[in-house]
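Lab channel / #folding
Pinned by the channel admin:
"Please post every new chain as: sequence first, then the structure tokens as a reply. Keep commentary short and put observations after the output so the thread stays searchable."

First post following the new format, from NK:
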Amino acid sequence: MMNAECEIEVKPSVALRHSEFRIPNSELNKTLTVIAGPTASGKTAFSIQLAKALNTVIISADSRQFYKEMSIGTAAPTPEELLQVKHYFIHNISIEDKYDVADYEREVLDLLDELFKTHDNVILTGGSGLFIDAVCNGIDEMPDVQPEIRQKVEKMLKEGGVNALSEEIQRLDPEYFAVVDKQNPRRLQRALEICYQTGKMFSSFRQNNKAQRDFNIVKYALLWDRQELIKRIDRRVELMMEQGLLEEAKALYPKRNLNALNTVGYKELFAYFDGQCTLAEAVEQIKIHTRQYAKRQMTWLRRDTGYQWIMSEEIDNIVSVLRQEFE
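Reply from TO:
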């Protein structure tokens, strides 16, 4: 029986049926269509289907799929899927590259300037809510952090690991704790630095001033029954193992200390290579941690009332509606 931490809550505002679906009116003649949802919800397949219907391209907003060394464990689009529709920001950097959300925001906006010259609609899809929000809303300016505070947080990480950072975030900023990836030391460090520097919650600095974009933005998120989504997650993990995730992780094991590899699907197998668990236990941990990640994704998405939620059984009908609306 799953504990509460593993349960995936899927109760946002009422999901729309295709008969209720509407495209917001806008005086802007270019549109960025965002397709979001928890992991394993079918974002890639839906986005490809919609992109083909709209004769457009896809920009990935999945920060793990940026890395060219990580394909199987990130569920990146397959070579066959990439041939169907032009994708951007898939395998565009190395795990050794320094790259953050500010870089992504700048590069995507530059790309959109070019794409909107030939496309009226471009699709942005992925499971990294922070990266989607950066493109849609911009990034808030954060105060500079004094070196001694940065050193204090680095020492905390070195001595107590990510759990120490996570516990401190929970104490200082429960709102951010609810949505942050608790296994991502870079994000935890940054949040703590701001908390210590300002004496305020990190979440109080996020998206206070929404950036103005010169294109229309519409947002859709895929919604599944909780038990069905859990089954999809478990099956995806099993497929990853069948496709060679163990071998992919083994090739990356020598570089396991890189921040990019501190992610679900790899860190569990690294623990297996270190003799900390059996392979079966590692695979089960991947499933559990993926469910937890999906829960955090749903928490992040629910806080944004701009999303229209699409029931999984309505996907085919919604594609038809959107194609008619955007023609």
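NK: Residues 1-6 have pLDDT under 50 and may be disordered.
TO: also worth noting, The chain has two domains: 15-139+208-326, 147-205.
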